[in-house]
Amino acid sequence: MKTRLLALLILLPLLAPVSAEIPFVRESELAPGDLQHRSTRIITHIIDTYHYKKRPLDDALSADILETYLENLDANRSFFLQPDIDDFRARYRHTLDDSLKQVDLSPAYEIFKVFRKRVRERIDYTTQLLDREYDFTIDEDYLFDRRDSDWAANTAAMNELWRKRVKNDILNLKLAEKETGDIRETLQKRYKRVMNSTFQLKNSDVFQSFINAYTTSIEPHTAYFSPRTSENFDISMRLSLEGIGAVLRSDSDYTQVQRIIPGGPADLSGQLKAEDRIIGVGQDKDGQIIDVVGWRLDDVVDLIRGPKGTVLRLEVLAAGVGPTGPGKIITLTRDQIKLEEQSAQSSIIEVPDSTIKVGVIDLPTFYVDFAALARGDDDYRSTTRDVKKLLTDLMKEDVQGIVIDLRGNGGGSLAEALDLTGLFIEQGPVVQTRDASGRVEVNRDPDPSIHYTGPLAVLVDRNSASASEIFAGAIQDYKRGIIIGEPTFGKGTVQNIVDLNRFTNHSERDHGKLKTTIAQFYRISGGSNQHKGVIPDIIMPTATHSDDQGERSYANALPWDKVEPARFIPASAPVDTFEKVRSRHEKRVENDELFKLLLEELALIREANERKSVSLRESTRKEERDNLMQAKNKLENAMRVAQGLPPVEMDDASIEEEAVSDEESAEDDEMSDIILMETTKILNDLIIPQEQIEENLKTVKKIDVNFDSSL
């Protein structure tokens, strides 16, 4: 699996509007300066001295740096020619290590200058392509995902690639019922923006891309933040955020939503989802939507940012729809993302066909109000404090079991993971940490008391990471509760942010920051969460085992390994308890209509996401698009009917989706969470022996009969 660098940014306020026209950077200006030279010395020193993974800067690493740098510049292999690649490999494959040691950054800039030249050639060629007439009855395909393809052998091959690309772009807009003149104008602007974005890159941008090729070739969570990127990172770590609340990344020509921030406008509206692709951005309720396909991530973020209370419109390709659309327009109002809205929330679910009530605590992140804590406030907010209060309230409601829902929880404070575990166990170890020197430290529950002793389930998915994995792993090792869901993300490493300015006397210039991996987490049973993640005791049928997910999707991720187990006393649970519960779960979902529909929907999305090519014949594209939308609508309506909700009509107008109303979003929220409901049934099986379950079912049916006969 080749490394795919993720540029992650929180969408936050921008103090000044985006400049409409930024001047091109002259080629003579594309050379490293003293700041880049000093930063290189500092970065190579820090990595060599403090990084957890000791990989020598040698010819093997040089080859990886070159390939990663080329991929950073041209991930979809749409600009460089094979002769360019052959030349780069001949000159630099085994010399970039020496260049870094000697602080010679010229190879990075020479490669980038060739890239600029190829971009100009391609964009100039699109002018000719846009003037052509295209026959959309010809049966030919366009390979839009070229990340694993060969580089174009020569200019003729590259011309053919771009002919199909332009034809595909025209067809996409044609199917969206755009006028011919509008199509040409839209694509002219799109392609011009590709060249502008490239020719506006400064020497500092080239430096950041090259240095990150070096850092990520060692380990994927090590990255250099230029002063601009560093400022964005600092803003993202503050407790009070303004914007729409989404984390974005670049994915080929698209800006993709990687994660939704709990409590933000995107989360509260329910209109924007992880893996959606943003293809257009408009300001205010009636502002023109600007096509952003092919834009740099930074520039898209700049458009999306804005102050609290302002309106933003996004044109979005939903996850699973595929690059051919159709898209939809969503409207969001930028707002402050409050800590309260990211905090733990509770609810009570009455398990169907049972007299059992289960308390559910939804935990979106492991948070703590550092500012209030630093001020010495006695009532500062934190995950553990909030969950403790929720547990007390739920126990007053006589719930017989608790579910901790960690789906989508990407982690947060390590201290909170330790403290939260302590609410469910007596004093003992929670996680182990090994640093770069090999020293292992045992991190313990600081509180000898236990707040909740009843039945416990922890619900996780593929996006549960870091602190979530520490908590779930500890609960599993202690056999304190049952872990349910999907194998987790698999991030078991610790990063530290180093201010490079601390290492230089040139304080008048900002050298940026380096995020570097300094340690690795290990479970108290000895194994690491790294790479494998936490494997649930009961794996839901929605789980997929793919190398494209989680930590294992990174080429240079640290492997799984282990240390000596810590000394701890697990709970005394019968050996076959979980096995019996698992067997009942499997029988239940095998015949559950909602689960069957959910799996069909996931398969449909997966199939669409795995496609790498599309037909350039208009009739085929229309048929494929309509079939996909109708299949999705059929499944969604079947799921709604199965849950007692009315079906939603989807006519031709709704297929060309324009917006999702607040009313529809609210109605969707009322639909039961299939995975969560099954989790409560599993927990119910742990609470009640099978004989009592059967007796309860008889009692419930008898009550129903008596009730009906009295009407």
Topology:
Blueprint lengths: L8 E2 L23 H17 L8 H15 L8 H11 L3 H6 L4 H25 L10 E3 L11 H21 L4 H20 L3 H16 L4 E3 L1 H10 L4 E3 L2 E6 L2 E7 L4 H5 L7 E7 L6 E2 L5 H8 L6 E7 L10 E6 L1 E3 L1 H4 L2 E6 L6 E6 L7 H6 L7 H14 L4 E5 L8 H9 L6 E7 L4 E5 L11 E5 L6 H11 L4 E4 L7 E7 L13 E11 L14 E2 L37 H14 L2 H18 L2 E3 L2 H25 L9 H4 L6 H8 L4 H14 L2 H20 L2
Parallel strand pairs: 13-14, 14-17, 17-18, 18-21
Antiparallel strand pairs: 1-5, 2-22, 3-20, 4-11, 5-6, 6-7, 7-8, 7-9, 9-10, 12-13, 15-16, 15-20, 19-20
Could you give a short account of the major beta sheet? 7 strands, antiparallel
Q: What is the level 1 CATH name of the largest domain?
A: Alpha Beta
CATH homolog superfamily of the largest domain:
2-enoyl-CoA Hydratase, Chain A, domain 1
For the CA atoms, what is the radius of gyration?
27 Å
Low-confidence stretches: 1-20, 233-241, 652-672, 699-711
Mean pLDDT: 84
Apparent shape: globular
Q: How many strand units?
A: 22
Number of helices: 23
Structural domains: how many: 4
Estimated share of beta-strand residues: 15-25%
Structural class: alpha+beta
Plain-language structure description:
By secondary structure, the chain is α+β, with helices and mostly antiparallel strands. It folds into four domains: 165 residues, no CATH class; 107 residues, PDZ domain (Pdz3 Domain); 231 residues, Alpha-Beta Complex (2-enoyl-CoA Hydratase, Chain A, domain 1); 80 residues. 42% of the residues lie in helices and 15% in strands. Strands 1, 5, 6, 7, 8, 9 and 10 form a seven-stranded antiparallel beta sheet that branches. The protein has a six-stranded mixed beta sheet with strand order 12-13-14-17-18-21, sandwiched between helices. Strands 3, 15, 16, 19 and 20 form a five-stranded antiparallel beta sheet that branches.
